[in-house]
Amino acid sequence: MSRGIRVQGHPVHPMLTDFPIVLWVTSLLWDVIGLILGGPFWHAMAYWSILAGLILVIPTAVTGFSEYLTIPRGNPAEKIGLYHLSANIAAATAFLSSLLVREGPATPPGTSLFWPLALSVLGVLLLLGGGWLGGDLVFRYGIGQEPAPGRPVPPEPEHRVEMTEPEPR
Questions:
Q1: Mean pLDDT by groups of 10 residues along the chain of 169 residues
Q2: How far is CA 17 from the centre of its chain?
Q3: Distance CA 2, CA 100 (A)
Q4: Which residues contact 41 (CB under 8 A, 6 or more apart)?
Q5: 3-state secondary structure of 6
Q6: Are 98 and 119 in contact (CB under 8 A)?
Q7: Exposed e or buried b per residue across 1-11, where buried means at least 16 C-beta atoms within 10 angstroms of its C-beta
């Protein structure tokens, strides 16, 4: 199975993924609370949560890419890994855009929060898709896993066979 970046035999990428995910999802929560309760505090919390998530996504992406590079060419996991990578880059881009349209942690009076919220919702949806694909890589294809000593390597997942119409006689 793949190696990637490890600490004492444990893959680092799964350890890091929780940080940007939690920070970005809670940033959306802070914005919603800010809409309900009003006041600049909650929107500032959202801003700083997005910024922290963007900082922490860098080592997460580096370790994830190191895992991706270990997938053998032609393995079906390679395509899933590319989709996972693309969804998460798109999510990070949505949150970066949300951060930039905010123009800082203090929301100016009368500023519309439509774009920051819309971009954050988009980012969360992309995270859900990217996370699903990441789980598929680990649990279906065994990426980042090593068999326990004395246990067999899990078999490659079965591939779907496309059915074709029989040729007329």
A1: 76 92 97 89 95 97 93 92 97 97 78 89 97 93 76 56 65
A2: 7
A3: 37
A4: 34
A5: strand
A6: yes
A7: ebebbeeeeeb
